[in-house]
Amino acid sequence: MIELGNYNTLKILRETAVGLFLGDDDVDDLLLPLKYIPEEFNIGDDISVFCYLDHEERPIATTLKPLIKRNNFGWLRVAEVNEFGAFLDWGLEKHLLVPFREQQIKMNEGESYVVFCYLDEKTFRLVASSRLNKFAKNEDISLSPKDEVDLLVSRQSELGWDVIIDNKYQGLVFKSEVFQPIKVGATLKGYVKKIREDNKVDIVLKPIGHLALEPAAKQIYEKLELAGGYISLHDKSAPEEIQQMFQMSKKAFKKAIGALYRDRKIEIKDDGIYRV
To answer: Total domain count for the chain?
Structure first.
């Protein structure tokens, strides 16, 4: 069965003047319009296509790659607002509707928002929602401390940055633990720091514990080599100076240079660190 809002592998059944007709065991008349036909194909070949509803609410296929798919979160720009709601540019000819009732805050044309794409069971249409709490729920969390996860930054708050974790859960990166540029809509890697009793998840952007030491030490040593074997920072340098040069906390910096010192790769002096 064809799944709207997702990629489907279908068989090329026949060629017509308007395009290719694709099918599977249940469907034999899904159109791939002429402009999306690959340069080379054979009748009977399998082809991967994205399926959605066209302007006349008919299922249709495309080889374009949308910016979001069904049951996923994404960062999309509003192309138009009218009496039905906001319409998002998701990379396809027909825009993706966010009904007014599904807007956490009023959406404005030209601005971008984090949304969730889903199939409306009443209308059988693909729509989106910025009411993220309805779809990212911290129930039955299958995460553990130190796990590496994929993040989508969804909101900035007084505490820090709200993130969507692995397209499933909600988490928070405290602003005191952010040492790099970050903005809403960004996708990046993170690490589970703590899962609280109420299932709230604390996330950091740097590896934790012994996992953090190796890349931090490597980063410092590579910078040291590029600088000719000397850097004016040391264990008593100001946190702001360390953050500016290495985008890491002073605590992580001290641990890293301590490891390099124990490995006899550097010397730590009053005026900076030297490569051995």
So the answer is: 4
Same domain, 159 and 183: yes
Query: Using an 8 Å Cβ cutoff, are 191 and 148 in contact?
Result: yes
Residue of 74, 258, 44 whose CA lies nearest to 184: 74
Q: Cα 110–113–115 angle (5° rounding)? A: 135
* 198 pLDDT higher than 60: yes
4 — phi, psi (to 5°)? Answer: -65, 140
Is residue 67 situated within a structural domain? no
132-143 confidence digits (pLDDT tens): 999 999 988 999
Instruction: Give whole-number Cα distances, 247 to 113, 166, 182, 208, in Å.
Output: 27, 24, 12, 15
Q: Looking at the whole model, is its pTM more than 0.90? A: no
CATH code, domain with 220: 1.10.10.10
Q: pLDDT, tens digit, for every residue of 211-266?
A: 565 788 888 988 898 999 999 998 889 999 999 998 888 888 998 898 888 878 89
**Is the separation of the CB atoms in 219 and 207 below 8 Å?**
no
Full residue range of the structural domain in which residue 267 is found: 210-275
Is the C-alpha dihedral spanning 68, 74, 79, 80 positive or negative?
positive
Distances, alpha carbon 72 to alpha carbons 19, 110, 115, 136, in Å: 29, 22, 8, 10
What six digits make up the tokens of 249?
């906390």
Do the bridges between strand 125-129 and strand 112-120 make them parallel or antiparallel, or are there none, so unpaired? antiparallel
Residue 60 confidence (pLDDT): 95
